[in-house]
Each structure stands twice: as structure tokens, then as C-alpha cells.
Amino acid sequence: MDIVNNDILKFFNKSKKDKFKKEREETFNKLKNIIGITDNNNKILYFDIDNDIIKNQIKNLYEDFFKFYTITTSSFYQSIKKNIEVNPLLAIRPIFKQHDFEIISKDVIATRNDIKKRYIQWIFNKI
User: Is 58:31 a contact under the CB 8 Å cutoff?
Assistant: First the structure.
């Protein structure tokens, strides 16, 4: 009986990072695919992901974010908890941070829709 109780305690005392390794990796890979981050491409323009299709795909991952990640201190989580409409793109930073990535924002000149102007580029670096 004590062995079962100790095993149960060990499971519940594990962090989400340890408890849900496989699920976190799957969710993280889905998020990377949605925004277009790969091993060969670690840069995106915020303009390219700021659309309803990508936002809805990220919203579809909310349940996994809350189940497999500890993001209770992020402004993203606090807004969702208070039923405040939040930009789903705010979920990207805390999830990548838990996979030991830093996201650097940089102004770049690029052409989108035949308009050349300054855009925000996100660079994803593994720490």
C-alpha cells in the first residue's frame, strides 16, 4: 500500500515539464509548424502571422497549453483567466521560453503586399 501511495505522490510532485514531456514536445511542434519556425528557419515577420487563420490555429492549442505548461504568471494566461479577449500570438513567447528559447524582436525593412516598409521580425534562438 505504501508503494502505491509513494508512486502516486511522486507523479503528482513532478513538474508539468517532467510529467508531460511527450505531450509538450508534440504541442510545441504544432505551434512551431503553425508559425513557420523550423530548424532551418528561425525568423518570422510578425505581419506574416498576425492573421485570423494562424490566430485560430493557436487558439485550438489553448487547452494543451493550460494542461501541459505552467504559464500562470504570463499576461496571456491572466487575461484568459479573467475572460478578457487576448491576442493568441501572446501565447508564443511563454511557450517558447519553457523550451529554452529566447525571442528577439527586431525592426527590418521588407516588402509585403507590394508595400515596402518597416516590420517587426521575431528571431527564435535556442538558449
Answer: yes
**Residues pairing with 111 in the sheet:** 116
As separate numbers, helices (DSSP H) first and strands (DSSP E) second, the chain gives 8, 3
All 3 cell numbers of residue 64?
494543451
d(CA 87, CA 51): 10
Which residues is 119 bridged to in the sheet? 108
How many Å apart are CA 87 and CA 19, to the nearest integer? 28
d(CA 35, CA 92) in angstroms, rounded, equals 9
**Which pLDDT tens digit goes with each residue over 61-96?**
999 998 998 876 677 777 777 888 888 998 899 999
Which residue is listed with cell 483567466? 81
